[in-house]
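Supplementary Note 3. Input sequence used for the single-chain structure prediction.
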Amino acid sequence: MKMMPKLTLSDAEIIMQACVRKAEEIEVDMDIAITDDGGHLILFKRMDNGRVTSIDISIGKSFTASAARKSTRAYGEVSLPGKPAFGINTSNQGRFSIVPGGLPLFVDGQVVGGVGCSSGTPDQDELVAQAGVDALATLLASGQPESAASVRLGAN
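The predicted structure, written as discrete structure tokens, is reproduced below.
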């Protein structure tokens, strides 16, 4: 049997707070989604001026990052015509995202979830998601969670 760390609602709230702070800092209201290791939604926030059309996009980015265990930017780079993952964005009932802004969350080499952000430019979305990844790293480094022995966040 394999024992794996799990992202809690409390962890997701800390990640969300960091994402919101970064979005406020760059002055872009975002839609922010946090999913578990299977891509299931744990927490979602639409800031006051977050785009309605970005709700599903942010959730799709988080789903992709957690379920596929790779950043949406990385998938975007390998999904162009002639590349090995061309067409992957049509998989999973169209939920698979290849636009930057989705990052996986790893603890002890295991994916525990993903963060997906949308409403800004792809680079802004990824910057806000990275703030959430960094917040989890800080939390784990503080020794609070029991699974903080070794951490690899935002990889792939």
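The longest strand covers residues 110-118. The chain is about 40% helix and 15% strand.
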